[in-house]
């Protein structure tokens, strides 16, 4: 075989290797979808969700230990990095969110005011009207439902910060409580709007663009 023939074989072999790698990548992505969490209902019209937000997810819960993340407490009181939640339609969802992360700040000060809730957002028991734009660690937002919740930060000079998730309530934290209504059945995206992904372009890469960290879905059924 001439050198041309060998070249053609090498090129074909190379293409095959790359195509196989892409196939595995897409296959892995398509089959490793995020797990879904269904809270144990108090009734079909009222559900409790307990959430924590952390500065670093740690090696136990993610292959990306330094990534900022949301966690949810499952029905056996274990913290899980599951950001897809199945909730009943037309139900009130009572959320308790423990934030262990510091301030990052908003690009848009408008997002410092809670929106779309039933009743008030409370921070450490006090009603919040609006948070200064340099304060929020994260936001919990469901744009399609008009819901926006700014999340108050732990102070920079906190004595007992939590370094790695899952964090315990013995570490410094803020407690945010709010209630929202799910409305009609649907598949609603939720996400954080604070550019909180440290070390990524404009703070919006990595955990801000990957399901399972700073965003997920609410499946209302
Ligand atoms: Cu965030």
What does this structure look like?
By secondary structure, this protein is α+β, with helices and mostly antiparallel strands. It is built from one helix and 13 strands, in the order H-E-E-E-E-E-E-E-E-E-E-E-E-E. The protein has two domains: 1-32; 37-220, Cupredoxins -  blue copper proteins (Immunoglobulin-like, Sandwich), CATH 2.60.40. The strands form three sheets. It has a seven-stranded mixed sheet with strand order 4-3-2-6-11-7-8, with no helix packed on it. It has a four-stranded mixed sheet with strand order 1-5-13-12, with no helix packed on it. The longest helix is centred in the first third of the chain and has 29 residues, at 3-31. The protein is globular, with a radius of gyration of 21 Å. The model has no long low-confidence stretch (mean pLDDT 93).
Which secondary structure elements does this structure contain, and how are they paired or packed?
Layout: H1 3-31, E1 36-37, E2 46-54, E3 69-73, E4 79-80, E5 84-87, E6 92-99, E7 121-123, E8 126-128, E9 138-142, E10 147-151, E11 174-181, E12 186-191, E13 215-220
Parallel strand pairs: 1-5, 2-6, 5-13
Antiparallel strand pairs: 2-3, 3-4, 6-11, 7-8, 7-11, 9-10, 12-13
- Number of structural domains: 2
CATH architecture group name of the largest domain: Sandwich
Query: Largest sheet, order of strands side by side?
Result: 4-3-2-6-11-7-8
Shape: globular
| Category by helix and strand content | alpha+beta
Helix content: 10-25%
The helix count comes to: 1
Runs in which pLDDT lies below 50 for 5 or more consecutive residues are none
Gyration radius over CA: 21 Å
List cofactors, ions and other ligands. copper (II) ion
